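Entry 14. Ran structure prediction on the chain below.
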Amino acid sequence: MKKNTEKTKAELIEELEALRSKLAEALDGKYARIADKLPQFVFEIDIRGKLLYANDFALNNYGYTKEDIYRGLALSDVIHQDDLERVQSNMAKTLAGDPLQQQTYTAQRRDGSTFPVKVYAERIIENGQVTGIRGILLDISGIKAAEDALRTSENHYRTLFENTGTAMVLIDDNRIIQSCNSQFAHLSGYTPAEIQGKMKWTDFVDPEELHRMMAYHANRTRNGQAAPNNYEFTFLARSNEHKRVHVFVRIIPGTKDRVCSLIDVTERDETLRALLESEERYKLVSRGANDGLWDWNLITNAVYYSPRYREILGYTEAEFPNHADSWLNSVHPEDMDRVVKANMQCVEGKVDQFQVEFRQIHKDGTVRWILGRGGSSKDETGKVLRMSGTHTDITQRMETEQALRESEERFRTMVEQATSGIYQCSLDGKILTANTALADILGYDSPKDLIDSIECSTNDIWANPEDRLIFQKRIHLERELRNYEILYKRKDGAKVWVCGNIRLAHNEKTGIDYYEAFLHDITARKLNERTTHALYNISKAISTTRDLKDLYQTIHSIIGEVIQAKNFFIAMLDEEDDMLRFVYFQDEKDDYYDIPNISDPKQRSLSIHVFRTGAPLFFSMADPDGEELMAKIGVIGTPPAVWLGVPLKLGETVVGAMAVQDYDDPHQYSGEAISFMTAVSEQVAMAIERKKIEEALTRLNEELESKVDKRTAELSRQKLELEDANKRLLRLDEIKSAMVSSVSHELRTPLTSIRGFAKLCIRDFVRHFQPLAKEDVLHGKGQRIKSNLEIIEAEGERLTRLINDFLDINRIESGKATWNDHFLNPCEVIIKATTAAFGGFSSNTDVKLITDLPENTSLIHADPDKIQQVLINLLNNAYKFTKEGAVTVSLKDKGDTLTVSVEDTGSGVPPEEVNYIFEKFHKSRRGDTIRAEEKGTGLGLAICKEIVEHYGGFIWVESTLGQGSTFSFSLPTVPGTDPMCS
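Output, structure tokens:
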């Protein structure tokens, strides 16, 4: 061998290159030996994406061999095609020097199966040139599974939280509402966004009750048992609306947080409304894989920690040197023995690989959870030469699992404290889960007692099996039922009504469908509804039934709609016979009977006991004392398995009893049936009493109708007689009218001659004979003759007026008068009438005629001559009875009517004559005038009355004796006409 000093420069260069190649091979071999034993995916690719190296762990998991690498494996063989483009893009960035870490992709095995991975990679630089990329892959299937489990659990309990059927909130120690469901949002009137994290529970409490509830809060904080866990208070909703709520409060174990369930008890008959979406309080965060590599040479005790290993713990290489002590000093003291033991078992060759979860202390003092994996390398004798492995940061996973456990515990507490019954049930009826509220509703000691007892709800829960078939059809068709009502059977056999939301759920892991239900006990509400309906129908039956028998049957039918009433009877007191009569009796085994001598204390029976005590009686053979009680009271007929009777009362008086019984099922009736029978008993008693009165009245009415029929027949006979008499009177009146008309005309002809010759005699006597009587005696006789002739003429004129008036009233009464009606101004008629009457007034200066008329007045529709005749008659009467003073004519327009009045200052009308003054031929007892020379006919006012009433008006008189009278009449005006000027 040549010495170095003897070698040429070319030889030295060639030798240097050979040394370098051997050194590289040695380093590569050492790297391959370390990487092949790692329980992690280690790879190397060239710049074209061809796989140059993969350790045994990676090849085994992917299903390939080293021969496959030699033949050529590309990225498309190990990465799913959906992520291939993104991988190539990130690969180009890495080759360009852009650091990319923790990239997540979908890896693909040789058999086509896929799994999620995270890739940590860096570029390879040799002799200053970028030649490829090396890195590790982390299988994050476990992390994904934990995230999915957390998301499923969170969604599950969020569903429970939203569907308990009651308002629920989570409150922290600072009284701030951190979470609420949609029922609470509905109750408060605020949106979840306005409430969560912003409002305190004190914002919803009436100020008058705040001091009390703050004291509860303080006591519960100091000692959870020192404050009531359920009570009522006044809830302040939006817009200061007051509601009364019942609240249930529990502290979540291990925290100071509180879970509250609130029930609106302001109106318990209302139906649930649609739930509002609320924000999720708990959000999942993506977990990252934190992996570091380590290697321990047991021969040389040399230790290697990768940069990522130190990064997990926050150290630099100088702060965390490659010594075993660095690792030992970072392990949590509580985990030291367990972790060292796991490593030593592998060192001692007891196991080839190990996996352990433990805690390491970060540089900043915090704790990191680590998943440590390791494996050993042995020589041919089996001696362990070295160990290597990975550290994965599972802090996020452990925190997620802890959060999951806390979430499950928190929502489990909420479910247990909920007032709604909550359960999950398999499709074949097996109860899978249930809370305490449901056990209470169904009468079981605990949820466990309920689950263990109910193997199949087909026979054990559903009161009516056919209802379950209907439910199954609907739930599988609609998937979810809201406010669904079901009749269940309690453990003791009693029936219970529930209402709530039920949905058909699916377990993604098991692939099994099941029912999930949130239920409320509505038995009391249903009883109230049915009781109210029964009371209404019983009251209605009083008027819709034909008789008492029909009423008893209807009452039986109404009660049978609410409770089982195959055996039903009503017994009423018969005081006269001292007997309890069974007026209605329906029984499967016994016949109808009555109980006599009920006043005898020795006489005993269940019905007599109810009648005597005036209180409900219930006994069941399921009660240990039932048989003894039945024997003590006494039973007539077949002993029943259960018996329920209530008194029938009118006020405080017991008038009978009503009962139901069952021979087979001692659990047939419960407290709800007692309440129902007691509630309707008074209405039944009132209905029976009213029906009895109604039947008595019916009988009385029939008797009265018989008498009325007889009296009606008698009146009909009298009516016919009166009608016949009236016809004869009408005929006589026609004859009278014809006779009056004929006589009046026959009288008028000679009367006209008499009046004419009387006037001629007066004129000739005054002109020819009176001047010849010069002597006093003859002169006096001449004056007497003239006076007698004037009397003949005046009386003839008065007789003429009487005949005219008589004819006028006869024509009016017989309907033969002529009425020339047209629209006219009443003021004009009044002026014409006063002008015609003025002559009489002008001869007597002691009486003045005055008119008081408005400037404008409404029109009337009438015969002006007839209205003028009324006015002249009234004016003449006023003049005749007025010695001095004035007669005033006035008119008042009231819109739809007008009133004309004639007022005088005469002697007045005596009060006893006011009611008769408008009758025909009526004359004052004091005479019909104060002037001897003016005599009346007694028909003028009667004619006025007939004329005014013909036009739909009224006439009346107001008078004060010695002071004067006012005669007035009113007439309707013409609608729609404008006032006329007078």
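Residues 269-289 have pLDDT under 50 and may be disordered. Will compare against last week's run tomorrow.
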